[in-house]
## 1
Amino acid sequence: MRSLLAHLALLAGCAVVPSRYEAVRGELRRDDRAHPSAPDPDHDRSLAALAAAPWLDRAALITTALARNRDVEAMRQAWHAAAAEVRQVTALDDPMVSYAVAPLSIAAAHVRFGEEVELRQALPFPGKRALAGEAALDDADAMHADLRAGQLAIAERASQLFDDAYVAARALEVNDHHRALVERMAQLATARVASSRGSAQDALQAEVELGQLAQERVMLET
């Protein structure tokens, strides 16, 4: 009877692993395959590949930004830690084993050697571990949502910077073309002044325009 009651108590105390925990484990495995190790800023192949590329690629820029962002990595580690809590809060406490002997029976010839081995296992109230597991899963889901939101924010910012870089590159091309035209105009104006067929004001205006273009180029390059 005692054995039956003990088995019933053990079954009642067991927490049923939620089915969505398997989905969390699948996400963790996929994340581990995508990020086998923490990024090393001093040996970042993605950054080296990005710098060596003949042109800037939007996808490569976003990938590198996500790989090198420490906030994203911190959120990823927090998610993994929260997911690991599920197993901890749903696990039973470690069993306790004790051993005792009867001192007077050790050297007594007419008394059998007395010893006792006791195994104790604390059993939580039925359903308590399941609720704790659900709460831990909720925390892990919240951490995962924070990670996804952080990744989206970094990806959006990197994409915006790519657009800014594209606009700046095109503006530099326009600046070069405009500067070439103004330089030709300045040469013509200088030649007309030298031949007394033009105004010095035209040559000065061309020089001012070249100075403005040079300043604009510095700003675009910056």
## 2
Amino acid sequence: MPTAYRDLFDIPRDVAYLNAAGYSPLPNATAAAGRAAVGNKVQPWRLPGNFIDQQNERARKAAAQLINASADDVSLIPSVGYGIATVAKSLEVPPGSRVLVLEDDHTSPVLEWQVRSEAQGFIVDTVARPPDLDWTVAVLASIQRAGAEPVSVVSISTVHWSDGAVLDMAAIATAARRHGAVLIIDATQSVGVIPVDVMALDPDALVFPTYKWLLGPYGRAFLYLAKRRQSGIPLEQTQHSRRNVRADNDVYFGDLAYADTARRCDMGQRDHFVSMPMTSTSLDLINELGPAHIMQTLKPLTDRLAEGLAGLPVSLTPAPLRTPHILGVGFPNGRPADLLQQLARQNVFAAMRLGKLRLSPHIYNDAADIDRAIAALRSALG
């Protein structure tokens, strides 16, 4: 296999796009699928009657393959926040217990618990950002803290979105199980790049969107639910959440019992003519390459970035603690206020997150892009 896949994208040679952790470009094949799908919506009478079911199952199976799950354990949802809300609705968090979240984690795994805590009487316990960025040690210490209220839920991300600090989810999952806590994982910044195996990890729920590392469109995401978490009431009440409520039946409300699998938690409106085929096309590419191969492709790029920034007045997430595909760059002595603009003038595109420059390459990047970014940063930082 080649080590770069730029020809699969419409990215000019002089552009170094390093913001996959924000939103990725679409592959050419995905864009073509979108254009064809628009045609389907223009003339829907040309579609077979089972078109929607086929496209939904294609996406569901592709998402399940990415995390080593059964398709029956995966729900079609529009966003990570929707997935967390779905799980939270079905949980009875004991009053006086703790729900563990990370300081400055993204909104999705945090805000749902904050808004529920007062009415339900539980405590949102925020794990402080560790000075050495070793989130794993900090989370484990919080779970096991002597004399603290019991932990009932651990709701965290696999990778801290601001700087790429990675968490050892296997160790955290083991600790959560030992303390009887529900583990809910926001895998936004890992699925598709870091191998994820829910059969081995055994979280209660895991959720991820498509518009970042999965090279897909906005508005599509997936929720994995362990078998033990598939009996809750869905966030929405829909036809397809029930065993037999179908418009083509003689009797519409045939069987109101909920579906037995995670399919009961599918979003209400899932007939997405355009974005679902685009999603499947991108997921097929990620599955074809394989997350392990993608990780091995991207790690040398972030390593090259780190090496190229040596000697500059910056701080980096330590190598053993950073994910292979995101490099967070801090500025202990301050940074130019127009740093992103300076980089953009040299066709280098990245993002600022919580005071750090976040550089996040994907399979369309290569060493030439990294060297362009290094040169631009050296110029900007003197």
